[in-house]
Give the backbone structure.
Amino acid sequence: MSVTSSEAPKGRAVERPLIGVTTQTLQVIDGIPSDLPPSWVMNQYYVRALVNAGAAPVLVPLIGFDEAALRGVYEGLDGVLFPGGVDVDPDLYGATRTGKLDRLDADRDTTELKLATWALGEGKPVLGLCRGFQLLNVAAGGTLWPDLAHDQPNMQKHDYFPSQGFTRSHLAHAVEVQQGTRLSDALGHRESVMVNSMHHQGIRQLGDQLVPAAVAPDGLVEALERRGDTFAVGVQWHPEMFASGEQSVGKLFEEFVSAATSSSRA
């Protein structure tokens, strides 16, 4: 269900695909007073990146407890963006919880897994970023390492968090981009790009019909996409922190929005 914009030249209406951006429970964020009314939030960088790419973003509430209501929201969307956030619950992919586990958001897990399962099964365009990348893998039947430092101590550092003094735009390491992928097209066919890195969980086993699209020097899968013609892409880094055209972003948001536009007209 695309919407029109009056910003087009000479009065022409421009169709903007409606992109759902999932939210997060405010109370699971570190330092938020627990006595505030239950609220759903999401940072603006994701929304602004989509607006700049030509989409009409809407925030999706965590109403997975009412499948019919959530399905009604989903049916009106041309695509779904799954943003970053707290850890995906290891119970959902059969792993043991460790002491390194971050805060969890059960309502978000429930809502996003339903949306991702529907979208992957029905061919609705999706883009997953950081947690969203991991969520797409779990929705496809894949698994994660609950804590890389604990589970894979020989891997390089991936948790360059602001709490450690790093900026969210800190370029932490390179990834090798797999040629012939949608991601490669979006990144201008670069063989390698520098990315920011704010995660402590990581891909252990890829889900059904998913293929690696970028790999870190230590072998960790840092991007994935689904086989076939549907746009279903996830990256472990945070491209929303950079301007369109920069090396770790390329035309990723534009390609996603274009796919959602085509989906709305199908």
Confidence is low (pLDDT under 50) at residues 8-13. The CA atoms of residues 176 and 192 lie 5 Å apart.
